[in-house]
TrEMBL record:
<dbReference type="InterPro" id="IPR020843">
    <property type="entry name" value="ER"/>
</dbReference>
<dbReference type="InterPro" id="IPR050700">
    <property type="entry name" value="YIM1/Zinc_Alcohol_DH_Fams"/>
</dbReference>
<dbReference type="InterPro" id="IPR011032">
    <property type="entry name" value="GroES-like_sf"/>
</dbReference>
<dbReference type="Pfam" id="PF13602">
    <property type="entry name" value="ADH_zinc_N_2"/>
</dbReference>
<protein>
    <recommendedName>
        <fullName>Enoyl reductase (ER) domain-containing protein</fullName>
    </recommendedName>
</protein>
<dbReference type="InterPro" id="IPR036291">
    <property type="entry name" value="NAD(P)-bd_dom_sf"/>
</dbReference>
<dbReference type="Pfam" id="PF08240">
    <property type="entry name" value="ADH_N"/>
</dbReference>
<dbReference type="InterPro" id="IPR013154">
    <property type="entry name" value="ADH-like_N"/>
</dbReference>
<feature type="domain" description="Enoyl reductase (ER)">
    <location>
        <begin position="19"/>
        <end position="349"/>
    </location>
</feature>
<dbReference type="GO" id="GO:0016491">
    <property type="term" value="F:oxidoreductase activity"/>
</dbReference>
């Protein structure tokens, strides 16, 4: 390790399970070191925050071996400051972004330095036209959109396609709208609340439906039955599924990042609820009106191969608002923002 890397670093640690105020502490911890030949040490400049991190911190989702203290966070952008002998294609000084394969630690990205292992998760050279904050946003959320649309979506190979994105103003939704519009001959309709309609339209949505307007939702259901190839659900729950599944064509797919509980994991998911959820998903898969798919695995290599070029050429942008960028020491505020369910685009921590 070179002398410019300090022995200790600042990190936002989850020291216990609980609310953001109770659980998150800004602490000095030992700086990780390159030990394995494929290790890369990154000085973190920005971190993309995802709802799963707040859900895990609260103790709402059953995660085996989840102990505290731990450093959460998976998405990052920063500079390489040290590397192992078998690292290829990356040099010290390179600006990079990417994601660890899991955003829940124990040695996550809410820190001044993070160790990544080449080959695990995603690591990409950051083009100079992307800020660290923009690059850090595009980890979990963008790959989730890709998984829901391209891997699970079963879109027709050719000809016109029609996609509905529920929750179009959030982290996943803003990427889903833009990614869907990169697919040729695709009409994209977004569902969001009135205050975000203009934003979603500006991302390329052909039409936007305000979910707070019963009239607008009723018109969608009445006029567009069996016309969609794909519904991408970033909100979850029974209401959207029951109301909208009939919009799908016979070979259409209901592809959800969340599942049968709205904002799943925002409340504690006990064993009984988990079993009930599993049963509902299984029943929908076996006997549902249309194909039902849940995003579980994220294809990290596609961030490197398919999505990074779209970010680099500006076809996909990270939606960032100044009031959603927080300093590392204010990570509590970042978690409170993400668990409000009202954030727009990405919540980012600046390090
Ligand atoms: N399965 C996976 O691997 C995976 C991966 C990533 C994310 N997820 C999950 O996917 C969900 C979405 O993630 P995210 O990062 O997009 O969340 P997010 O950024 O926190 O979503 C916030 C957005 O949701 C909108 N929203 C809230 N309630 C809504 C409703 N009833 N109808 C329509 N929009 C609503 C809000 O807009 P308004 O203020 O206008 O309501 C806000 O813009 C989370 O539950 C997350 O945990 C799963």
């Amino acid at each position: 390790m070179t002398s410019t890397i300090p022995e200790t670093m600042n990190a936002l640690q989850a020291v216990k399970l609980g609310s953001a105020e109770e659980a998150l502490q800004y602490n000095q911890v030992k700086t990780p070191e390159v030990k394995q030949p494929t290790d890369i040490l990154i000085q973190v400049k920005a971190v993309g925050v995802n709802p799963v991190e707040a859900k895990a911190r609260q103790g709402n989702i059953p995660i085996p071996f989840f102990s505290t203290p731990r450093i959460l966070g998976g998405d990052f952008a920063g500079n390489i400051v040290a590397k192992g002998s078998k690292v290829t294609g990356f040099e010290i000084g390179d600006a990079v972004y990417g994601s660890l394969s899991l955003p829940i630690g124990p040695n996550g990205t809410y820190a001044e330095y993070v160790l990544v292992s080449q080959g695990s998760g995603a690591l990409i050279k950051k083009p100079s036209n992307l800020s660290y904050e923009e690059a850090a946003g595009a980890g979990v959320a963008l790959v989730t959109a890709y998984q829901a649309i391209t891997v699970l979506g079963n879109l027709p190979k050719e000809g016109p396609k029609k996609i509905l994105v529920i929750g179009a103003s959030g982290g996943v939704g803003t990427y889903a709208i833009q990614y869907a519009k990169t697919i040729p001959e695709t009409e994209v309709i977004g569902i969001c609340s009135a205050k975000n309609v203009e934003l979603v339209r500006s991302l390329g949505a052909d039409r936007v439906v305000d979910y707070t307007s019963k009239g607008a939702m009723d018109i969608l259901v009445k006029n567009e039955t069996e016309t969609f190839d794909l519904i991408v659900d970033c909100i979850g729950g029974e209401d959207y599924y029951n109301q909208l599944v009939g919009l799908l064509k016979k070979k259409g797919v209901y592809s959800t990042a969340v599942g049968p509980i709205i904002h799943n994991g925002s409340e504690k998911v006990g064993l009984f609820t988990a079993a009930k959820l599993g049963t509902t998903v299984a029943l929908r898969k076996l006997f549902g009106y249309r194909s039902y798919q849940v995003v579980i695995f994220l294809p990290w290599k596609k961030l490197e191969s398919d999505l990074a070029p779209l970010l680099a050429n500006g076809n996909i942008k990270t939606v960032l608002r100044d009031d959603q960028i927080f300093d590392l020491k204010d990570g509590v505020l970042a978690h409170k923002k993400i668990e409000s369910h009202r954030s727009v685009g990405k919540v980012v921590i600046r390090v």
